[in-house]
Amino acid sequence: MDLLYESELDVTAPYAIETVQAIGQNVGLKRKEQYRALRCLLANLYIHRGRSIGVPRSRNTMLPARYNPLRVGAASLVTALDGLATNGFVDQKIGSASVDPALRSLTTVTATKRLLTVFQDNDWAIDACSRRRPEIIRLKDADHKLTDYVDSPFTVAAREYLQDYCSLLDRTALCLDSPSQYKDFDQPRLRRTFLNNSFWQGGRIYGPWCQESSTERAYIRIEQKPTVEIDYPASHVNVLYLLETGARLPEGEDPYEIVLNGLSVDRATVKKSVSIALNSYSSRGFANSVAKNVGSGLRPSTILSAFLDKHPAIAHHYLRGPEHGNLIQFYESEILMNVIRYFTTRSIPILTIYDSVCISEEHHDALRRVMFGAECDEQFLSVYRGIGSTDFQREVECPLSPRSAEPLVQSVNS
């Protein structure tokens, strides 16, 4: 399969809805929900015509209601899909050959020549379909599946902030124009994803440009203007120092510079090893993961010990498991949200890529001032070190304290 079914696609133009009604009657649909399912299927097949689409057939693979804007159930989707297949509008292959178990449960669907002819005969154009605004604040469970949640003051505020940012990007011409490819990023689909059933875990923002290599991202254009990308060096290490000492490391200091027996250790090896340690429960699990993913000739424990000896102020944050690593990722994401809010309120579009920011060259100096200025760090610390905090997040249970090595659960009203 080429693509996954998009539950937010819909047929909305009146002339195209007439086509949906005619096809629905032809395949024997009766219920309103079945017609909604047909609209979504036809929108997917038209937008992605000529490509195969993975469509869920079972209740277990359907998205929760929050991520399913047309409120299409599994039974209605299967009825509409089988009706299309029986009447020659689509070819479908139940089950997938993918190595991913989640994808093996999907049905591969492709529009037939008959359906493509219907689109053509009824003069379908790009305005036939639209994309309903998907849920942009997403929560995944421990199995990495999207799960529903009850809105809190934090999720409401987080959605409003992100919607403001999305609205700015929707009005901005965005593209990647490199020697090897051209891509439009018009009206990009953004999402902020939290992990492990907790809004204190993860929180990264994902856009389509995140899938591009750093080499390709150098060719991103904002309103046809060249861009620059600035990252937070040693992002998670500096966030930990910020939490523990109130300040980042001095500019130019490399936390990953380690010397053993008079020889410098490869920086990339140290960085990967330390990142693994942040998300590991035990020394043994850490060592096994480093041996598998890094492959250094040095003992993993030797590398980690040297790093922790160099950074005693933050040493207690390591080997505490992926939940703690995801908490630090959340703090990183909140710092980036502060940067996003600053530029969004000034109608200056930026693009975030995990721990870096892309902006038009003309705003390079402004971005550096905001990212590395004291104001942004003070705003972060006022919330997460409890100094005069009025942040919405304080009303949500926090699974770990940012300043303590011991687990702490805060009350809802803390």
Helix percentage range: 40-55%
Overall number of strands: 17
Q: What is the global morphology?
A: elongated
Give the CA-CA distance, first to last residue: 48 Å
**How confident is the prediction overall: mean pLDDT?**
87
- Unreliable sequence segments: 387-414
Q: Which class best fits the helix and strand makeup?
A: alpha+beta
Instruction: Summarize the biggest pleated sheet.
Output: 6 strands, antiparallel
Number of helices: 14
Strand order of the largest sheet: 9-8-12-13-17-16
Whole-angstrom Rg:
24 Å
Percent of residues in β-strands: 15-25%
Descriptive notes:
- Strand 10 (about 190-195) and strand 11 form a beta hairpin.
- The protein has helices spanning about 15-25, 30-45, 75-85, 100-105, 115-120, 155-170, 215, 235-245, 265-280, 285-295, 300-310, 320-345, 365-370, 375-385; strands spanning about 5, 10, 55, 90-95, 105-110, 130, 135-140, 175, 180-185, 190-195, 200-205, 220, 225-230, 260, 265, 350-355, 355-360.
- It has 14 helices and 17 strands.
- The strands form five sheets. A six-stranded antiparallel beta sheet has the order 9-8-12-13-17-16. It has a four-stranded mixed beta sheet with strand order 1-3-5-4. The protein has a three-stranded mixed beta sheet with strand order 7-10-11.
- It is of the alpha+beta class.
SSE blueprint and pairings:
Layout lengths: L2 E2 L4 E3 L2 H14 L4 H16 L5 E4 L17 H13 L3 E4 L7 H4 L1 E6 L1 H9 L7 E3 L5 E3 L13 H18 L3 E4 L4 E3 L6 E5 L2 E9 L7 H4 L2 E3 L2 E7 L3 H11 L13 E2 L2 E2 L2 H12 L4 H11 L6 H11 L11 H23 L6 E3 L2 E5 L3 H9 L1 H11 L30
Parallel strand pairs: 1-3, 7-10
Antiparallel strand pairs: 2-6, 3-5, 4-5, 8-9, 8-12, 10-11, 12-13, 13-17, 14-15, 16-17
Helix pairs in contact: 1-2, 2-3, 6-12, 8-12, 9-10, 9-11, 12-14
